[in-house]
Write a structure and sequence with these properties.
- By secondary structure, the chain is α+β, with helices and mostly antiparallel strands.
- 35% of the residues lie in helices and 18% in strands.
- Strands 2-1-8-7-6-5 form a six-stranded antiparallel beta sheet, with helices on both faces.
- Strand 7 and strand 8 form a beta hairpin.
Length: 251
């Protein structure tokens, strides 16, 4: 176990009420090319549904293929009512990512078609790349599966621009995944994902300041079933990740 993992474990033990336990947390130093913190061990190798973290490779595909032009590229809401009020309106590429709009993703995969989506997934090496669950549902608790370790590999290659997509696709996808800048000047990019009780929540992304850069993966599951927090699990994972990043002094 690394010193970073030991320190992280101590931090978790010190404030269990304030900081829910992450099923898996990995922090990777892009400059030093090494993992500096990892908790979860076997959980980090477990494949589950990517849920809305799939929007990141989907954005790379759509910008590369020209289905989306820039962050203002829009799709009109068809009037279907959703329980999440933010989805019940027209959206741009930027608000699609920000509000995690499922119907916008489904519109993009339908416009590209199964053959093109499968081809991109093979090139992007995103989990098992299995679209057999359907063009509009495979990533939603269906056939597509990815582990935290695989999420880390994907985000490392994405941020280093080592995937076979255009420079424009990288620029636009990085632009729309911007979450916030911390008071200490760290810039946070990332994407949440919320699944069923077994999948739990994801928050995966990149954090940087000056010449320091890290990618991270957080997965949270309420295994005891005792959480009183009724927010989407991905939002809880995001809060956990931000606190863990602060403990590591990288946010």
């Amino acid at each position: 176990m690394t010193l970073g993992a030991l320190a992280l474990g101590a931090a978790l033990a010190a404030s269990p009420a304030a900081l829910p336990q992450a099923d898996c947390f990995i922090l990777y130093d892009l400059k030093a090319d090494k993992v500096v913190a990892r908790t979860g061990d076997a959980r980090c190798a477990e494949r589950v549904s990517p849920c809305s973290t799939f929007k990141v490779p989907l954005a790379l595909m759509a910008f590369d293929a020209g289905v989306l032009t820039d962050e203002t590229s829009a799709r009109a809401w068809d009037g279907t009512r959703y329980s999440r009020e933010a989805w019940n309106r027209d959206h741009t590429a930027a608000t699609w990512m920000r509000d995690s709009v499922v119907w916008f993703s489904q519109r993009l995969t339908s416009e590209m078609g199964m053959e093109k989506v499968r081809s991109y997934l093979a090139k992007l090496d995103f989990g098992n790349g299995d679209m057999s669950g359907g063009l509009t549902k495979a990533w939603l608790e269906s056939s597509m599966r990815i582990s935290p370790d695989e999420q880390l590999r994907f985000w490392t290659r994405f941020w280093r621009e080592q995937l076979p997509v255009s420079k424009h696709a990288y620029e636009m996808t990085k632009k729309i995944t911007l979450v916030e800048t911390s008071p200490r000047g760290w810039t946070l990019h990332g994407k949440t994902g919320s699944g069923d009780a077994a999948t739990g929540g994801w928050f995966v992304g990149h954090v940087g300041k000056g010449d320091r850069e890290y990618v991270f993966v957080t997965r949270y599951v309420d295994r005891a079933g005792t959480s009183k927090d009724d927010r989407p699990a991905g939002w809880i994972a995001r809060d956990i990740a931000k606190k863990l990043l602060e403990k590591q002094e990288v946010f």
